[in-house]
Amino acid sequence: DIQMTQSPSSLSASVGDRVTISCRASQGISNYLAWFQQKPGKAPKSLIYAASSLQRGVPSRFSGSRSGTNFTLTISSLQPDDLATYYCQQYNTNPPRFGQGTKVEIK
Amino acid sequence: EVRLVQSGAEVKKPGESLKISCKASGYNFANYWIGWVRQMPGRGLEWMGIIYPSDSDTRYSPSFRAQVIISADTSIATAYLQWSSLRASDTAMYYCASLSETTANFDYWGQGTLVSVSS
């Protein structure tokens, strides 16, 4: 059973800051890692798939990377609209599994 | 355009049964995995399980096996999540999500169904 460990659980940053969120898989998942954004009261929205591919329509300030079983979501310049909780999710094995989530707040 | 439309909010008592639905449109429902995600109040997202509608192959997350039943009806392009005996701890928002052919991930989401269980 693949476990996804996400950190930090929350962060507070200023508009314009560079923000990074980490996710580690307990075993190899190749590139089968996605990042989701969930705004309060809304369904999750896919931002990135295959570790680093940006979904159509997602702003280019979002990016993803992989190093082995470690994955990173980066927001290059935080915007007020980025207030949300972010989840990593592996889809190498079924059913998929989410990380615990990172709540991003704006200072 | 892919759309997943879920059934409306439910208020139930402990011990009651419930079946909620997720109607799909805009793609070949039978040939793509579709699943259910639970979100308890103030908590994170948890995959409950997924189903391949054309042959009803179903994969449950360990925490939800024997707690719920996931099913699908290809004739009406609808997936279901059902409980035989609800508990207060089943109070949560439930989302359905389907696989994208383009990304091979669960990119399409329903709007959510809120289930409240209280005596």
Q: Can you describe this structure?
A:
The complex is a heterodimer of chains A (107) and B (119). With 107 residues, chain A is mostly beta strands. Chain A contains no helices and eleven strands. Chain A has strands at residues 4-7, 10-13, 19-25, 33-38, 45-49, 53-54, 62-67, 70-75, 84-90, 97-98, 102-106. The model of chain A has no long low-confidence stretch (mean pLDDT 96). Chain B has 119 residues and is mainly beta. Chain B has strands spanning 3-6, 10-12, 18-25, 34-39, 45-52, 57-60, 69-73, 78-83, 92-99, 106-109, 113-117. In chain B, strands 2, 4, 5, 6, 9, 10 and 11 form a seven-stranded mixed sheet that branches. In chain B, strand 4 and strand 5 (45-52) form a beta hairpin. The chains are: A mainly beta (107), B mainly beta (119).
Summarize the structure.
The complex is a heterodimer of chains A (107) and B (119). Chain A is an all-beta fold and 107 residues long. Helix content of chain A is 0%, strand content 50%.
How many helices of chain B? The count is: 0
How would you spell out the order of helices and strands of chain B? EEEEEEEEEEE
> Helicity of chain A, in percent?
under 10%
The chain pair forming the largest interface, with residue counts per chain, is:
A-B, 25 and 24 residues
Please state the overall shape of chain B, judged from the principal axes of the Cα atoms.
globular
Strand content of chain A: over 45%
